[in-house]
Amino acid sequence: MDTPKVQILLSTWNGERWLPELLRSLEQQTFQDWQLLIRDDGSTDRTIQILLKWQEANPQRLSDLLLDGTHLGSKLSFSRLVQASTAPCLMFCDQDDIWFPEKVELQCTALRLLEGKFGKEKPLLVHSDLAVVDERKELQAVSLWEYRNFNVGQRKQAYLLNNVVTGCASAFNREAARLAFPVPLYAMQHDRWLALVCAWFGHIQPQPQPTLLYRQHGSNLLGAEPGGLSALGERVDAWSRQADAFLQRFGKQLDVADYRLVEAVAGLRYIRGWKRRQHILHHRLFKQGVLRNLALLLFA
């Protein structure tokens, strides 16, 4: 089977309620040179039966169906999918979303133009806005970016603490896959890690047009709701561990100033209280927005 231009990487887990609608939205894509690469993360419902039935009806659309039966969680499951991929353009796909018909075409075209500008040897990523809906598909927010007050034009340093890239709304090239994966154990999420790597060593291009319905419901692993303050300290520790993983993999490729900045984030988990606040202020480890930074200093 020839390698398609686009492989859509779908990790499933107990998704029988949502999968049929997602698969129908993929079948309606205006760009046709794509295939699904699927890994099931140990489903116990009818997910696998739905996938096998879809495979029977659409054999030309499936690159592979990975059924090892192990529950890894989304981060490592998607990492396995990237490692198994071969296409020049890759797209993450969540089982409960609904793609607009032009999503693959828009993002594949944008990525191809980005490679024409910067070259295929750079890790490149494009990502779009999303329309947020509830489990009944009732609109909750026209724009996730506006709802979460995302600054999608942020500098590379901001990706150490902030993430504005949603995996299911992104597309990335072969070099990004090679450089960022397999994802390290202490990466916060597969898409957040990918964005961090592309921001530092390549380029990220935001697309303001929403390309899918981003469904929010009780079973979502990561939702669109803004996070509370109670877990801010835990998130700071997670930023720190991810920064340390970044240093372990890429430290030799960083200049002195960049190394010290990443090292400053990596050191956050070893200090508490006033010393942590001093550390944040001294190294200017700030998030987006005044209120977020006040919360960081008060509650981290």
UniProtKB/TrEMBL annotation:
<feature type="domain" description="Glycosyltransferase 2-like">
    <location>
        <begin position="8"/>
        <end position="176"/>
    </location>
</feature>
<dbReference type="InterPro" id="IPR001173">
    <property type="entry name" value="Glyco_trans_2-like"/>
</dbReference>
<dbReference type="InterPro" id="IPR029044">
    <property type="entry name" value="Nucleotide-diphossugar_trans"/>
</dbReference>
<dbReference type="Pfam" id="PF00535">
    <property type="entry name" value="Glycos_transf_2"/>
</dbReference>
<dbReference type="GO" id="GO:0016758">
    <property type="term" value="F:hexosyltransferase activity"/>
</dbReference>
<protein>
    <submittedName>
        <fullName>Glycosyl transferase family 2</fullName>
    </submittedName>
</protein>
<keyword id="KW-0808">Transferase</keyword>
